[in-house]
Amino acid sequence: MALRLGDEAPNFTAETTAGPINFHEWLGNGWGVLFSHPKDFTPVCTTELGAVARIADAFQARNVKVLAISVDPLDSHKGWVNDINETQQCTVGYPIIADPERKVATLYDMIHPNALDNMTVRSVFIIGPDKKIKLTLTYPASTGRNFDEILRVVDSLQLTANHQVATPANWKDGEDCIIVPAVKDEEIPSKFPKGHRAVKSYLRYTPQPNK
Ligand code: BEZ
Predict the structure, then answer these.
(1) Which of 49, 111, 142, 145 has most ligand 1 atoms within 8 Å of CB, for mutation?
(2) Cys-Cys link to 205, which of 59, 61, 135, 176 (CB 3.0-4.6 A)?
(3) Atom of ligand 1 nearest to the CA of 48
(4) Residue 150 near residue 179 (C-beta atoms within 8 A)
(5) Which residues contact residue 156 at a Cβ distance below 8 angstroms, ignoring those fewer than 6 apart?
(6) In this structure, are residues 137 and 127 in contact, taking their beta carbons and an 8 Å threshold?
(7) CA of 144, closest atom in ligand 1
């Protein structure tokens, strides 16, 4: 069955370009992003891996480890990383799982045979410090993902986890947030000292708490 939000992210051991890992141990107490690629030496994937390498500092600043996966073997990954670094003006510093037996791809339901035979689709999983799945995304092979959006979701998830706020449609960093329904009106002054405005009893805005 497909993995759902709130499920525990299945643990696995795998060979990666940075050596063998045990996924849960590698994640430690921080956040994680696991994202799949249909195949090595393909154009869209090459741009995606480069894009993630160029914003690696932004993930690190949020205590997020990133881990890519492609079903090709390790030797292939190593040659491909050279191409990515050469063509995408980056240095890929995060690990890429080699999954030629499709063990991890199958565990995470990344192969959708009616869309792509024997390759993974473009899946993304955001995993919280509790090892629970916080976001799943599935993109077609022909559409490169927007990794700024992944960072935006991480920011939103961390705001909810740390400050009891949600984020409205098209929210961007620095904009007002929404106080989650679990917070009672009488708790607002102490929890949100920057103030709030209630548009409706269920729609209460507050300035972004961590800015
Ligand atoms: C690509 O990464 O460019 C790609 C991979 C598989 C199918 C189509 C495109």
Answers:
(1) 142
(2) 176
(3) 2
(4) no
(5) 166, 167, 171
(6) no
(7) 2
The residues annotated as belonging to the active site are 45
* Spatial separation of the C-alpha atoms in residues 41 and 30, rounded to whole Å: 31
| Tally of structural domains, the chain | 2
Q: What are phi and psi of 158, to 5 degrees?
A: -70, -35
Residue 60 domain-assigned (yes or no): yes
Report residues of the chain scoring pLDDT below 50.
none
Indicate which atom in ligand 1 lies nearest the CA of residue 43.
3
Helix (H) or strand (E) holding 29: none
Expressed in angstroms and rounded, the spacing between residue 143 Cα and the centre of ligand 1 is 8
| Spatial distance between the Cα atoms of 32 and 108, rounded to a whole number of angstroms | 14
168 lies in the same domain as 86: no
Residue 59 sits in the same domain as residue 126:
yes
Quickly tell me which residue has 């929890």 as its tokens: 191
Residue 48 is predicted with a pLDDT of 98
Query: What tens digit of pLDDT does each residue of 9-43 get?
Result: 999 999 999 999 999 999 999 999 999 999 999 99
Mutate to test the pocket of ligand 1, among 35, 41, 45, 88 (most ligand atoms within 8 A of CB): 45
Largest alpha-carbon pair distance within the chain?
60
Q: Does residue 153 fall inside a structural domain?
A: no
